[in-house]
Amino acid sequence: MNEHRFADSDLQAATAPRTTLPEQIRRIAEERLRNSPYAALRMISCQYHDGVLILYGRLQTHYLKQVAQSIMTDLDGVLEIANRIEVVRRPYSLQSH
């Protein structure tokens, strides 16, 4: 009887889910946002298609929108960044005295 034996690492490599390059780039981009010192950036999501990284979500300032984009500027495989983050300011609540 011919029996094949695999080392644990061979078995893990053979059964590990494979991710595509676009998925890897998206994950790296979102990881950068999650590791940001700005908590608001952790809610931004990304998509990647044909060299274009697209940022989605809502932030309260234009500054944070630019910070999110600047985090991605040196990401390998990204030729263009489409920053579709909306800047939404919360209305001030007027309190009666």
Protein described:
Strands 1-2-3 form a 3-stranded mixed β-sheet. The protein has 97 residues and is of the alpha+beta class. It starts with 7 loop residues before the first helix and ends in a 10-residue tail after the last strand. It has a single domain, classed as Histidine-containing Protein, Chain: A (2-Layer Sandwich), CATH 3.30.1340. The chain has helices at 8-15, 21-34, 62-70; strands at 45-49, 52-59, 80-87.
> Please, what is the average pLDDT?
83
The secondary-structure element order is HHEEHE
Q: What's the number of domains?
A: 1
**Rg, Å, rounded:** 20 Å
Query: Could you say what the CATH architecture is?
Result: 2-Layer Sandwich
How are strands sequenced across the largest beta sheet? 1-2-3
**In which range does the helix fraction lie?**
25-40%
Number of H- or I-type helical stretches: 3
CATH C-level: Alpha Beta
How many beta-strand segments?
3
Low-confidence stretches: 1-16
Distance between the termini: 89 Å
